[in-house]
Design goal:
The complex is a heterodimer. Chain A is built from 7 helices and 19 strands. By secondary structure, chain A is an alpha/beta fold. Chain A has 2 domains: 180 residues, Metallo-beta-lactamase, Chain A (4-Layer Sandwich); 127 residues, Rossmann fold. Chain A has a 7-stranded mixed beta sheet, with helices on one face. Chain A is globular, with a radius of gyration of 20 Å. By secondary structure, chain B is of the alpha+beta class. In chain B, a hairpin with a 2-residue loop joins β7 and β8. In chain B, α2 packs across α10, α4 crosses α8 and α5 packs across α6. Classes of the chains: A alpha/beta, B alpha+beta. The interface between A and B is medium-sized, with 26 and 27 residues.
Amino acid sequence: MPSDFAWIRPEPGGLYIRPADVWIDPSRPVGTALVTHGHADHARAGHGVSIATPATLAIMRERYGEIGEAWPMPYNERATLAGGVHATLIPAGHVLGSAQVLLEYAGERVIVTGDYKRRADPTCAPFQVTPCDLLITEATFGLPVFRHPPIADEMARLLSAREANPDRAILVGAYALGKAQRVISELRLAGYDAPIYLHGAMEKMCRLYEAHDIPLGELRTVAGTPKAALAGQIVICPPSALGDRWSTRMPDPIPAMASGWMRVRQRVKQRGIELPLVISDHADWDELTETITQVNPAETWITHGREDALLRWCELTQRRARALALVGYEDEDD
Amino acid sequence: MQRFAALLDTLLLTRSRLGKIAAIVRTLREMPDPDRGWALAALTGGVDFPAIKAGTIRALLSGRVDPVLWALSRDFVGDTAETACLLWPEPPTPPGPQPSLTEVVDRLTHATRATAPIVLADLLDRLDETGRYALLKFATGALRIGVSARLAKVAFAEAFGVEVELVEEYWHGQAPPYTALFAWAADGATAPSSDLVPLFRPFMLASPLENAQLDLTEFAAEWKWDGIRVQLVNIAGQTRLYSRGGDDISAAFPEMINALTTPAVLDGELMVRGDAQGSTTGVGAASFNALQQRLGRKTVSTKMLAEAPAFLRIYDLLLADGEDLRPLPWHERRTRLEAFAAKLDPTWFDISPLIVAPDWDALAQLRAGARDAAIEGIMFKHRQSPYTAGRRVGLWYKWKRDPLLIDCVLMYAQAGSGKRSGLYSDFTFGCWTTNPDKGGELVPVGKAYFGFTDAELKDLDRHVRHHTVAKYGPVRETDKSLVFEVAFDSVHTSKRHKSGVAMRFPRINRIRHDKPAHEADLLATLAALIAD
């Protein structure tokens, strides 16, 4: 008989594990929070206790300073929460420290994927497929138009644009946590060993990644660098800096952006991007559907994103599924 | 195809005009013949494949993608061709090499309604995502990349170091892939012959008259008509109608093509017959709204020809009886025009009459009184001026009539592009259906993105950010607290808008921080100004 998984409840402010009195990625301060990864819309300040991987806790401390009581939970170590709920954090492949949550209670296994991807990423541990009864999945890129190309192709386009424009700076808008370090690492893998320039807002996270044994090569700050010295250079900045006055410090900058949304031309145009780089830290349509197929749960719940299409896919493949209306997660900049 | 696809993407994403020109120049220089001729034709709107419609693409995909997933994807992407190229199920191994642009043209030209889906599917299977996008845009003829025919011609001239005026002149006698044009420009062959071709001649343009009075003994005055500026050309037995940008719009107005049978080049205002007004001439023209129904068509129905026949109100004569009249002073051309026009059929032609006024004040009064829907203001033409290409200060002036005004409430805002990117600068505003205190609601009546200073724009941007109540993608809905005084030239009935009205040239005249939103105007007030 299919269960209704009554012990885990979708609330507007996050997923609530009732017997343990624990919230997953709550959007407001709670007593005990289980945090899947360090992005600001998932990891918020002000909880009594924060449970997360050591790397995620380090990211939260870097962001917020004091974070209250911290409960570090390394990958693949089963722990017991209050009320007899067992929890295990499993790599999600999204950013450094990101985790899926495996919850076991009353003979039922539930996986909360958090944000995840299946592509190789030199800056974090790869996603592990784990069997379960209920899969609670994200759906940020849950439309069949989203198929992320191989990242090596995108790097090749970035490097050839740089070569073709020796007098201009290439300004790559990238999320400060995860995307920026992944782009830098992939550039190094592609053989680019020149210094890479950073907007001030990127420095702290890059240092944190390096402290976690992820080498990023020679990084320099834009501040204090003469304009002329930035010609022909790659500069990484937050997406919001692409259009603001800061960008006028660059010589004739080419606005680029590393994001899964860059797959859609109208989005690219809307944001005034000249060099779109389709690079995402989320699963694309094929990865989302492949993951559901591989995990093969009895039931699938779909959280934030474009849940309608994924729900339709579940219907077409005769899978039990429902969409949850969780609020407060934003992935506009991925 | 790859090269052409890359060009389209670059043009779509490059904002600067110079950047676009540079991209076209590179492509025209490096692409082989005849591919580059077809690329040029695509940019100038010179290709048309009647067998391929947007519906062809939808039908092609409906057999391959679940209809619900298609609809959700189409809604998100906002463009049928792009949705199709993103959703296209790529075969594990393409059935053949990437097609060249010439092969694409060849196959699409020979496609019929029945074979089009098969041909398109085969081509799509052989292309990558960028190539598929270019193919579908090329096949449907809807590039929307912000490149005008003129820009493409400027780039062509720059690519091969020839004069753009010569390109314009030779252009009209040529058909894609413009083999003779490339041979002339790129390889130094003899110029294509143009003597027997009904060419377009560049228009003479007017400067705005700002707070100045002109000497009426030096300048002649005539009404500025609210139609479209056209050039009607008859040379060597062929007649063509050209729009202001030099585009051939003959197909949309066959009655005008049949109407001119003697060799001449006429400059005038194309309008549609109607009886909305016409007091100055006795023969009526309908409002611009009526003309608009006939613009942009590739063919025109007999019904439309009967209901909304066009006519030309002539104001200049450039060529007649094989003589180029352009070097003559205006008053001599005018005399020749009057003699010439007397021989034309009044069903299709009349002359834009001169306005006779004893002095400037009398003229200003006439202008203020002209609420006629076909009149935009007054034109001044120097009596001694030859007909010169482009805008030369001191020869022709336009003095537009004062705009109509209405108070509207800001409803939605969207960020601009280019130097306004990131600033909310496109504003949708509305009027009240009935008294807001008695349950009236706002209904959008127009959209404006100019009329304010840079400082005011900053202020408006801040207002939008602080008064947002909802976001729809790039659009923000505001709390509808700010009143704009909107200026516009005229207002017409419209079936396309929920409000039932459409304004011409709306712009923000003043920002009325002082005025409470509920005191803004009613829709009925705006509708009372309709000039159809």
